[in-house]
Amino acid sequence: MFKGKITESIIVSASPQEVYHLLADYEVGHPSILPKPYFADLRIVEGGYGLGTVVDVDMNVFGVERTLNMKITEAIAGELLTEEDTTGTVTHFLFEPVAQGCKLTIDTTMLFPRTIAGFIERYSTPMITAMIFRKELALIQAHFTDEREWVSSESRS
Questions:
Q1: Which residues, in sequence order, are bridge partners of residue 106?
Q2: Are the CB atoms for 91 and 82 separated by under 8 Å?
Q3: Is the pTM of this model over 0.85?
Q4: Is the C-alpha dihedral spanning 125, 127, 131, 136 positive or negative?
Q5: Could you report the per-residue pLDDT of 126-144, keeping only the tens digit for each?
Q6: Which of 13, 28, 121, 156 has the fewest CB neighbours in a 10 Å radius?
Q7: Each residue's pLDDT tens digit, 46-77
Q8: Which residues lie below 8 Å from residue 26, measured CB to CB, with a gap of 6+?
Q9: Among candidates 145, 115, 110, which has minimal Cα distance to 130?
Q10: How far is CA 78 from CA 93, 103, 127, 141, 151, in A?
């Protein structure tokens, strides 16, 4: 198998606990920050929050549709959330405290078959996935920016 690795990070203006809570919540939080049209649907199979949750995620990337079955684990509770697909794709969400809030890193390792198609996927998929991750990170940052502005305006009433 060929291995591909994609890593993207952003500084989010929220605490690591707040960002973790958003992403560990597979019922409301996590689905709200998945960029469309790439993530078409997320269905909870088991659980719903953090450790032990199992979800099916329908993806549509440039007309290629596939469903991922992801099991959620927490190697380090509150600091490292992991999604592992039955195909061997593993995504880590790392929440690190920084002066501005939280450095959130999404790190994915994918496996590709040792075929010509797998070779091509190994080089094209990471670029596409990185683009999708950047959109997801922007949605996460916007979630906290918009939420904080809304909370601020409510407190002025």
A1: 8, 93
A2: yes
A3: yes
A4: positive
A5: 889 999 999 999 999 999 9
A6: 156
A7: 999 999 999 999 999 878 898 999 999 998 88
A8: 42, 44, 47, 48, 49, 53, 55, 72
A9: 110
A10: 10, 13, 29, 18, 24
